[in-house]
Request: fold
Amino acid sequence: MTYILGIETSCDETAAAVVLDGKTIVSNIVASQIDLHAEYGGVFPELASRAHVEAIGAVVDQAIEESGITYDQLDAIAVTRGPGLVGSLLVGINYAKGLALATGKPLLGVNHLEGHVYSLWLTEQNRTIEFPVLILIVSGGHTELVLMTGHGLYTRLGGTLDDAAGEAFDKIGRLLGLPFPGGPNIERAAQNGNAASYKFPRAKMDETYDFSFSGLKTAVMRAATVMPSAEARRQRGAEKKAQLRDGVSVGDVAASFQAALVDALVEKTTRAAKTYNVTEIMLAGGVSANQALRQALRREADLPVRYPPLNLCTDNGAMIAAAGFHRYQAGQRDEWDMEVQPMWPLTYDTYAEA
Ligand code: KG4
Ligand code: ZN
Reply:
C-alpha cells in the first residue's frame, strides 16, 4: 500500500489529493480560482500566485484530513514542477519541500503533462492498459499528441504551433462575450447553434502531427465581429474592443468554431493512431471534457477511446499523485534544491532523464 500526496499549483487551481497505489483516489480537493480571474477574462499570473499562497495550507490539510490517514502514513509527496506559471509553481514546490522536510518523506517533482496522462489511470481501477497508447493532451496551455510506449516513456509526435486548444476556446469565448473559461461556455452556446453555419478553416497543415489554431481564430473574428476603426481607437474613452456584428448568432459561431477545432484534432489523432498501431486513444486535459470532441473521436476512430471523468479533466492533485506513484516505483527521489521547470516538455524518458 503506497500512499502519495499530490500537490498541484501550476495554473489557476490550488489542488491536493491522496492516491493509493497510483489508481485509487482517497481524497481530492480542488480550490478553483475561476471566479477570481473571470473579471479579467483570463488567468492573471500575480493574482494566481497570491491566491495559491492563501489557499494551499488549507487545501493540503483538507486532503489529508479527508483521506483518513496521517502525514506519517504517506510514502511520498509529489508536486508539479512544471510546465506552468513560475510564480504559481513556486508556491506548490516550496510548500511541498517544507512538508517533505517536516515529515521526512521523499519529495518527487512531477511533470504537469505527465499528470494529465495519469489521470487516465485513475478512471478504471481494474483494467490493464496495453502499450503503446496514443494520448492527446488538450488543455488551456497545451495541445500535445504523445505516443506512450511504457510508463514514463513518451515520444512527442506533434503539438500546436500557436494557441493551445483551450486557449483558442477561451479567446473565442471572450470575443463572443461569453464568461471565462470559454471552453465550457462555448460548448453550452454551441448546443443552440448550427455547426454548418460557417465554414471555418480546418488547418489540415500537411503530413505532420502539428496543429495551428491562429487561422481559425482570425476567421472567426472576421466573420463574427467588427473591429473598431483606428479613429475610434484613438478617441478617449471609446469602446476599443471588437463588437459582435449585427444579427450574428453566438450559438452558430460557437458551434461552427467548435466543429472546426474538433475536426482538426480528430483528423491528426486518428491518423497517428493508425500509423503507430496503438491499442487505444486517450484524451486528457481540460478540453477533453468537451462532448463534441469525445463523440467525434469515438465516431472516427476504430479503436477504444478513453477520457477521464469530468472532475479529472481539469487540473487536480490526484493526477499528480498518480504520476508521482509511478515515479516513486521507478526509484525517483528529488533533492531539496529541485527547481521549477516552467517550460518542461514531455518528450523524453522522464524516469531516466529527470
Ligand atoms: O487542464 P486545464 O484545467 O488547465 C491547463 O492545464 O491548462 O484546462 C483548462 C482549459 C481551459 O482553456 C478551458 O476553457 C478548457 O480547458 N475547457 C474546455 C471545456 N472545459 C474546460 N474546453 C472545451 N470544452 C469544455 N467542456
Ligand atoms: Zn492542466
Notes: The longest strand covers residues 24-32.
